[in-house]
Write a structure and sequence with these properties.
Length: about 325
């Protein structure tokens, strides 16, 4: 099978939302009137972001999901994507499952694949995603204000706990791993939440590298500090059994791969945010407050300061 056969068979679909999609030297896109374009790129490398024997269907899902999460963090409506694949070989069974996982999630969010590239090499997946957001309405990291509530969607730590099990750092019961594994392999991007937070949240970020690391980006960009109540952090029933242990605390505060939205908003927005939570059937939890200064303090239930040497994932540390 040639490179062009591979593209035609597994990655060419109709693109009614684009002027021109796959098959030429570049795609042609028409942005809606009054909109700005949000663009983000994420790379997933075998052995770094996923295990070499990862299920291809779930990998196709996750490759797109982590990019959709960036659109969610900006409050953007996803529209188009490009996909660059480095493949050890043209394994047709693998490609079939990978493309099925990718396009199933793409269809759920109205995303069209409009281009990309393929080459032979170590397994590497790189997606660039593009979305639209009304002019001036994009959520940013830089808008947090002193006095803001800090919120988090969903729950924290499940994906990191599943990964710890796969890496042999903890031995989970079969039912506990089964409960955590979907958070690692098939995260749910909070796209609808991001769009609902336009005009409501002062700042937002998706939690990919760990809560402390990603909240730290908001604080750095906003020139602010934060106080977090550890007891307020939302965790699943499975995670509750581990959260008092060092590994569990690390998973919740610094584990990464959650792909939840962390955002800040004024106290006056509490009722509105609770309505958004109900409308989306998605738990949204207040976990702390933006304060003056530049430090993030995590307090235990007794008010003492918790220390965490590891803040989150960094590829070069």
């Amino acid at each position: 099978m040639s490179e062009f056969d591979l593209i035609a068979r597994y990655f060419t679909r109709a693109t009614p939302g684009a002027v021109l999609g796959v098959g030429d030297d570049a795609a042609l896109l028409r942005v809606s009137s009054g909109m700005e374009v949000a663009v983000s790129t994420d790379m997933l490398v075998s052995g770094t972001h996923f295990l070499p024997n990862a299920d291809p269907f779930m990998l196709g899902h996750k490759a797109l999901a982590v990019n959709l999460s960036d659109m969610a963090a900006m409050g953007a409506q996803p529209r188009w994507a490009t996909l660059a694949l480095s493949l050890p070989d043209a394994d047709e069974a693998w490609l079939q499952k990978f493309s099925e996982g990718f396009f199933r999630l793409a269809g759920q969010h109205g995303v069209e694949l409009v281009g990309g590239d393929t080459t032979r090499g170590p397994l590497d997946l790189c997606i660039t995603i593009m979305g639209e957001v009304p002019q001036g309405a994009a959520l940013r990291r830089s808008g947090a204000q002193v006095g803001d509530d800090i919120w988090i969607s969903g729950s924290l730590g499940n994906a990191a706990l599943a990964l710890a099990h796969l890496q042999g750092n903890v031995q989970l019961a079969a039912e506990d791993f089964a409960a955590c594994a979907p958070f690692l392999h098939q995260p749910v991007p909070r796209v609808a939440l991001g769009m609902a937070l336009r005009g409501v949240a002062h700042s937002a970020i998706d939690v990919s590298d760990g809560l402390l690391a990603d909240l730290g980006h908001i604080l750095e960009c906003s020139n602010a500090g934060a106080e977090i109540a550890f007891s307020a952090l939302p965790v699943s029933r499975t995670m509750q059994s581990y959260v008092e242990h060092p590994l569990g605390r690390r998973c919740v505060l610094a584990g990464g791969d959650d792909y939840e939205l962390c955002f800040t908003a004024s106290v006056a927005q509490r009722n509105g945010i609770e309505k958004i939570s109900a409308q989306l059937d998605l738990p949204l939890t207040r976990i702390g407050t933006i304060i003056a200064g530049k430090r993030c303090t995590v307090r235990a239930a007794d008010g003492s300061v918790m220390t965490m040497e590891e803040q989150g994932y960094d590829h070069f540390r």
